Queue: 2 jobs
Job 1
Amino acid sequence: MKIRRIAVMTSGGDAPGMNAAIRAVVRSANAKDVEVYGIRRGYTGLLSGDFERLTNREVSGILQRGGTILQTARNAEFKTEKGQKRGLRRLNEQGIDGLVVIGGDGSLTGALALHEMGFPVVGIPGSIDNDIWGTNMSIGVDTALNTILDAIDKLRDTASSHERAFLIEAMGRNSGYLTLMSGILGGAEIVVTPERPIELEEIAQALDDAYMRGKSHAIAVIAEGAKHKINEVAAYLETHPCGFEVRVTILGHVQRGGSPTAFDRLLATRMGVHAVDELLAGRSGVMVGLDGRSITPVPLAEVISQKREITESYFEMAQILSR
Ligand code: ADP
Ligand code: F6P
C-alpha cells in the first residue's frame, strides 16, 4: 500500500527533543509528498479525533523548544481493547495510512497494540528516564542529565560554603539511570538507586565517612524510585547524625523541561527521519533505536518485553570515584 498520509503524536511524560522529532517527521515526510497530521494530547486526542494538518510552517521555530507542541496525556481508556478499536477507527476516518508514536514504554505498548490490529506504526523512544530497551539513549535523557548536573554543581557551591550534606532527588520512575549518571558526573559521595537497594545505615555511613575523610561537603543523589525515599533518609539522618548538617532538594519536574541539548536535537532529528523512512519502506511494529552510531529498527514486541539494565560497571565507577 502506498503511504500518502501519516500522523504523529507524543504520549506519556514529555521530554526535551520531542519537538525536534515532530519537526523531523513533518519535514522529511512532506519532502516525500506525504501529508502529516498531528494528533493532540496522545491517545486522548486519538480517541476524540483531535487531528490537525502539520505543514512545514506549523513546525517552524520549535526545534529548540522543550515540551511538545502537540501536548501529551495519559489515557486509561486506550489500554482497553475497546479503546484501541476506537482509536483505529479514528485513524481510518481521517484517511491516515501510518502513525509515528513518540513516547515511553507505555506509549510504545499502545503503539504495538495498533500494529497488532494491522495498522502501520513506528515508535520513537522519548522519555527522560532512559528505561526503554532497544536504544542506548532515549530522546530527552541528555538534556535532563545536564539539568540535574547544573543543579548539583550549584548545590555543591552552597554545600561546601556551609559544610553541609545535600540529599538530591532525581527522577526516573523505577529506573536509576539519571541518578547513577548524574552521581558520577556530579561527583556525588553516594548514589541510591532502585537497582541497588541500600539500607539507611549505609547511606549515613557513606556521608559520615566523607566527613571523617575531611571533605567540606557531601552530595547524595537519591532516585525517586529508591527503596528508601529521600525524606525517609533525611529523617534517619536527624536521629543518626553524619557529621554534616543535612539539606534536601527534590528536583522534580524541572528535569523534564528546557531547551534540548545538541545531542537530543540530533538524536530526535535522526529518529524522526528514520521513523518516516521505516513507514514508507512498508515496515511496522518497530521502534527506531540508537545502536552504536546507527539508528536501527527494533521490534516493538522486544522493546516492551525486555527490561533495560544499567551497565553494572558504572556502579563500581561511582563508588571508586567518590573517595
Ligand atoms: P510513557 O509512555 O512515558 O511510559 P505511560 O506509561 O503513562 O507513559 O503511558 C502513556 C500512555 O500510553 C498511557 O496513558 C496509555 O494511554 C498508553 N498505554 C500505556 N500502557 C498501555 C498498554 N498496556 N496498552 C495500551 N496502551 C497503553
Ligand atoms: O517518565 C517520566 C517521568 O518524569 C518519571 O521520571 C516520573 O516518575 C514521572 O514521569 C512523573 O510523572 P508525572 O508527570 O505524571 O508527575
Note: The domain at 5-140+260-305 is CATH 3.40.50.450 (Rossmann fold).
Job 2
Amino acid sequence: MLCIYLSISQNAKEKALFLPRKFHDMKLYEYQAKQIFKEHGIKIPRGSLAESLGEVRRVAEELGGKVVLKAQVLVGGRGKAGGIKKAMNVDSAVEIAEKMLGSSLKGEIVRKIYLEELLEIKEEWYLSIALDRVEKCFSLIFSTAGGIDIEEIAQKFPEKIVKVKINPRWGLWDYQIRDILSGAKIRNDLWKEMAGIIRALYEIMMKYEAELVEINPLVLTPKGLIAADAKISIDENALFRHRELEDLREYVGVDEVEKMAIKAGLNYVRLDGNVGVIANGAGMAMATMDLIYLEGGKPANFLDIGGGAGAEIVKKAFEVLSADKNVKVVFMNIFGGITRCDEVALGIVKAFREINPKIPVILRLSGTNEEEGRKIIEENLQGKVEIVKTMEEGAKRAVEVAKWQ
Ligand code: GDP
Ligand code: MN
C-alpha cells in the first residue's frame, strides 16, 4: 500500500528531497568570500559592491575608471559566460552594468555587481583546499594552469596539478607547503608570500568548517600576490555554529513563505496545491500527501515537524501555513511516539491564541497521550479544529473542506 502512495506523489517527493537549500553546502558570494580572505591577511584587489547603475558609476569613479565588473552569482565559470567584463572608463563601466544587471547568467539573475580595480596580471595559479570525503582528509591543490576551472585543468593538463593530503588530525605542516611549492616549481622569491596564503586558507577552512576554499586565479601583480577570485563553501550541517555566516545568506529563488520556514528551522517545501500538511516525520508527511492525492486533492506543502516536536514548533508551522495564501485547509496528521499528543495539542492551542489562524484545521491525533491531547483540543478549540479518527478520513475531509472554501 505504501508503495502505491509513494509512487503517486513522486514528483512532490523529488521536490522535497532535492531542494537546493537542503544540499550540504552554503556557497558564499565572491564579494563575501573576499572579505573573509582580507580578514585573514590574503590580499584582494580594491573593490566595492554595486546594486544599481548609480552605485556602479560612483564605485567606478572611486576606483579610477579602469575596472573589472564581476557579476555576483553562485555559478562558476562566469568569465566564459560573459559575467566578467573589463571597462576602461566610467561611462563604459555603466554601459556594461546596464546590460549585466537583471540579466540571467547560467540561469541565475544578476542583482549585484562587484567592481574591482583592473589588475596587471603577470602570472596566474590555481590554489584550493577541499574536503575529500572519500580519503577522509583535506586536499591542498595547486596548479600552474590558473584561471580555468579545476575540472578542466584535470582533464586537459593533469600533469599541472600538484596535490598534498592534509590529515585533519595533525593539521597543515610546513613541509607540506614546501612539498606543494616545489612540486609546482614556484620561484623561491615567492615562497614566503605563497606559504602565508596557504596557511591563511587552511585557517579559514578550519574556522568556518568549510568544504572548499578556492583562489582561482591567484595572480602575480607588481603589488605582489593577489586573490583575483574567491570561493568559499561551508558545510550546511555546521552552519549552526557560525551564526555570523547565516546573516550573509541570501535567499535567492526563495519566496517569503519559504524564507519564513527556513528561518523557523522547519523542514518545509512549498508545493502548488491548497491542502496544507503538517505531519511528524518525513515518511508520515509523504504518506499524508499521497492520501490527499488519492482523495483527488493537492497538497500545498510538505512539512515535517519532526519527532518530539513541542508547542513552539507547532506554532511556527501554523504561522508558515497561514502566510501561504493558497492554503484553504490544514490537515495535521500526528502519530505520537516520542512526540506527545498533548504537547502537540498545546502547540495548536498556543498557535490559535497567538496568531489565530483563519483556516479550518482537520486533526488526526493518535498514539502517546492521545486522550489528553484530544481533551485539550475539545476544551479549548471547539468548532475550530475538527478531530478525525484515521488519516484516511482526515485526508478525505481535508480535500472536501478545501473544495468548499
Ligand atoms: P570565474 O570565471 O567565475 O572563475 O571568474 P574570475 O573571477 O576567476 O575571472 C575570470 C578571469 O578574468 C580570471 O581568470 C582572470 O584571468 C581574468 N581577469 C583579467 N583581468 C582581471 C582583473 O583585473 N581582475 C580580475 N579579478 N580578473 C581578471
Ligand atoms: Mn575564477
Note: The chain has three domains: 2-22+255-404, 29-45+120-247, 46-118.
